[in-house]
Amino acid sequence: MSRRSGTLATKDLMVRIITSRLVEAMVRPFLPPLLPVFMLHQFRNPGNGRPGHDPQMVSDCLARLKKQGYAFVDLDEALDRFSQSSVNRHKVVSFTLDDGFLHQVETAHEVFSAHQCPFTCFLITDFMDGKNWPWDAQVSYLLEQSNKESLVLDTRSGTRDLSLNTSANKQRAGHEIRELMKSSSARHKAESRAFLSNLADKLGVELPAAPPSPYLALGWERARELEGKGVRFGAHGLTHHILSQLGAEEAREEIVLSREKVCQELNNPSDVFCYPVGREEDFSEREMELVADSGFKAAVSAVPGYVTPAAVNSLRFVLPRFTFPAYARDFFQYCSWVEHVKTRFRETLIYSPHGVGLVK
Ligand SMILES: [Zn+2]
C-alpha cells in the first residue's frame, strides 16, 4: 500500500468512527439541528464519455446513510419543519438537482427512487420550453465538437493559449471559459450570445439553436409524470444567466416568469427558488427581494453550509447547499456533525480577537 492510499484509508476509517451511531448519539444533543442540503448536477454518461456524478457511488452513499438512521426529507417539507421548530435533533438530509437535463433527471430518478429518497429538481424554464439551452452547456458542446488543437482566449489579463488536444484538456479549457464568462459582467443576455457565437467561430463548430442529444431537456410532459412519482420540481430562472450581472428588468423576468411557468405546468411545484450558478456574488439584495416578492418561501444558493432553524427564520432567501462530493468520506463528513464543528472552529480562529486567523 502506498503512503498516500494508506493516509486515505486512515482518513476513511476516522470518518467512519466519528460518524458512527455511538459517537453521533453522544455529540448531537449539544448541537443545533442541522440540515445538509446536497446539490447534484450531471451524472456520468458512459454513452458519450461526459463526466459527472457516479450513479453507483451516489446509490451506495444513500444505502449507508439509511443504515445509519438518517431520514431523507423533501426540501420544502424540511424547511417547513425547521421554520416551525418542529424538528428534533433528527438526522435529516435533503437532495436537490439543478438544471433539468433529460439524462440527469432520469438517472437521478432511477438512483433515488431505489432508496425511496425524494429530491427536488430545479428547472431552467426556457430550456424546458425549448426556447434555448444553457450557456454553460453550449461551451461544453462547442469544445467537444471542435477539431481544433488549441484556442486563443482573450481575458482581462491578456490572451491565454488553451490546448484542446485531449478530452481532459478540453474539459480544463471549458472550465476556464465558463469562469471567464462568469467573471465578465454581461449586463444583458445578448452579450453572452455574442460571446458564444464568437467562440463557435473560433472553434469551427456550428452552434445549433436547439440542444443536441446529450443536452436534451427533460420536457414538461415527463416532468409531470415524474411529479406523479414523487419528484418535486422548482424554478431555476429562465435561461441560467447569473442574475446579479443582469439589468433590473431582465433579473426580475428571470425570477417572476420562471415561477409562473413551473406553477402553470406542474401540480405541486417547490416554493423554493434556486439561484443560477449560485455563488455569493451571483445574487444580491435585489434578487433576494424579488424572490420574496414573487411568493417564494425560500431560496437556495451554491454556498456551502448547513441549514439551521435560525437560518430558515432569518436568512431564508440565502440558504446554503453542499455540492455532492466526489468522495464518499467527504459526503459522510458533511452529513455528520463533524463539518459543522470544523467550520465553527475555523470561524472562531478567524474572528476571535485572540484568534490566530490561520485557517481559511
Ligand atoms: Zn444551474
Q: How would you describe this protein?
A:
The protein has 360 residues and is of the alpha/beta class. It has 2 domains: 31-130 and 217-324, TIM Barrel; 135-203, no CATH class. Helix content is 47%, strand content 12%. The chain contains 15 helices and 10 strands. The protein has helices at 3-18, 21-27, 55-67, 75-83, 102-113, 125-128, 135-145, 167-183, 189-203, 220-228, 248-265, 285-293, 309-314, 328-335, 338-351; strands spanning 37-40, 71-72, 92-99, 120-123, 150-155, 158-163, 232-235, 272-274, 298-300, 322-323. The strands form 3 sheets. Strands 1, 2, 3, 4, 7 and 10 form a 6-stranded parallel sheet that branches. Strands 5-6 form a two-stranded antiparallel sheet. Helix 4 links the parallel strand 2 and strand 3. Helix 3 (55-67) runs parallel beside helix 5 (102-113), helix 7 runs antiparallel to helix 8 and helix 11 (248-265) runs parallel beside helix 12 (285-293). The longest helix has 18 residues, at 248-265. The radius of gyration is 21 Å and the shape is globular. It starts with a helix and ends in a 9-residue tail after the last helix. The structure holds zinc ion. Zinc ion is lined by residues 98-99, 236, 240, 276.
